[in-house]
Amino acid sequence: MKLHTAFLTIVGLTSALLLAGCSAPSSPATGPAATTGDAGANATADPKVRRMVMAVTPPSTESNDPRGQRGPTNWVYRPFYEFLVGVDPASGKYIPQLATKWELQPDGQSFKFTLRPGVKFHQDKGEFGPEALIDTFKLETRDAAIEGINPSSNIRGALLPLIDSIEKTGPNEVLMKLKAPDGTFMLTISEQRGIFYMLNAKHFAELGVPNYQTGPAAGTGPYQFKERAEGQYIRYERVPYQHWNVRADFPEFEFRFMKEASTRMASLLANEVHMAELPDDLKLQAQSRGYTLLAGKVPGLRSFIKIYCCHLKDRNDLDSGWQHPDSPLADVRVRKALAKAIDLAQINKSFFRGQGEVMYNAHFHPTRQGWDPTWEKRYPAEYGYDPEAAKKLLADAGYSAAKPMETNIVFPTEGYGYSGGDDMMEAIAGMWRAVGVKVNYATIDTARRTQLTQTQGMFNHLVLGGTAADTWTGITSYGSAASTYVGTGMEVPEADKLLNKIKVTLDETAQEKLWRDIGEALFTQHREIPLAWIPVESTVNPQVVAGYTFPGGITGAWTHVANIKAAR
């Protein structure tokens, strides 16, 4: 592989487009994606396009039935489905959504929810209330395997082990009983995780299992589903009544699926789309042409290197030891050396436009629960760039020029909300070689990688990772015996014991202490090689879009689209 090949290809394509005559952004002409506003509305107040179009990377799977979708693919439902507990788009904190308040009961494992009255379902399918919530829970936890949905990847797999029952206790009140105290409960039901959708179960039954012909079951969001074309787009329309929360500026909104960044860029320059998800190099070119960047408000998207080395012999026995104790990556000195060999300042400048924020601990941030300010002070000694220290650590671990430490980088890197992953890993490989590491490139396609992960067949491999997930999901998804995910990264028994404790801890003060101890275990054991926190940015035509307040710290990134403000 040649460094920067992909980068140069994109630049070449884009340069050709610019030379062809695309200049500063302009108001789009009238057309299918750009027509006049609502009939009869004040023309001076109308947005300049009727349908706001955002070009994005396609989701890996598509369906009108959300029950089998995970975080990286469920963002397409968020414009029309809501949750009991929302996420503030500016702070990332939990806020009331379809529940106006919630209270932990004296038994320590039940919550009383007061539901928001008068919330309408789309398509005149009635109002949301206790009965609708109970019906939704029954629908989303029934055995979907007979309907062709993988039960290990659906909503049922998250909710059924957690919630015992939901009972109506008043006109707008329910009691939700848990099977046991669970510290992840609020996360699981909230907009942050985004799986417990409040969809209309009766409409679902009318449709049968939703497909591309029927469309999805009705929700309660500020946009309702309009239409979709598989692999091309999904469109939404503003509800024809006053929504309880927000009135979207644009009568219609569309996610347009475009795999190639150069195609998204070309469509933005041609005014075929008005917002686009672009890699950093193309953002710079768009800015030079008058386009602007709108960033998420909450740190979430982050880049790190997953270490595949240390899988327990028995995940039910956290003291059982490693399946492959002879892996060079099982030595913490080696993991520390790999971190200290990386010139992160150069990586930030070359691949993140210098906008990356220092990552002291892969899933912890000063804005998140469990932050320990001493990590920042101790970071230079543990992780800071120091090639000579890296060489000494490798020598202390028994490696030399005659007997180099040898490991494997997995290609291709997968898309995690930022581009240039292959090039970045090649640059990092060069830094590792400079301190005496023998680096091999392992080309493994997605299907084979999944198989190797599930069988824990990668035990001396380094894999570029990235996520915008919350702390719990980020830690347990990338190497933890406290979750159902197998072989997805290094397991740290000390942290897993604490994760099991936090699962049954509802007291926030006790949770804070546990989170800090978990972070300490991950920090000192070098479970991941941290790279950077990356701003989530959309490139927009300022003639059409005036602003967009969204957290960016939710998997899928593009949430709260009803907050997109029209330029007038």
Q: State the shape.
A: globular
Please indicate the percent range of residues in DSSP E strands (runs of 2 or more): 15-25%
Provide the CATH architecture of the largest domain. Answer: Roll
Major sheet characteristics = 7 strands, mixed
On the 0-100 scale, what is the average pLDDT?
89
State Rg.
Answer: 24 Å
Name the CATH class of the largest domain. Answer: Alpha Beta
> Strand sequence of the main sheet, in spatial order?
8-9-10-1-11-19-12
Determine the CATH superfamily of the largest domain: Dipeptide-binding Protein, Domain 3
Count of DSSP helices?
16
Quickly give the structural class: alpha+beta
**Quaternary arrangement of the chains shown?**
single chain
Helix fraction, binned, reads 25-40%
The beta-strand count equals: 21
Task: Note the gap between the termini.
Answer: 48 Å
Number of domains: 3
Throw out a few tags for this protein.
single chain; 568 residues; alpha+beta; D-Maltodextrin-Binding Protein, domain 2; Dipeptide-binding Protein, domain 1; Dipeptide-binding Protein, domain 3; 3 domains; seven-stranded mixed sheet; 16 helices; 21 strands; 28% helix; globular; disordered N terminus
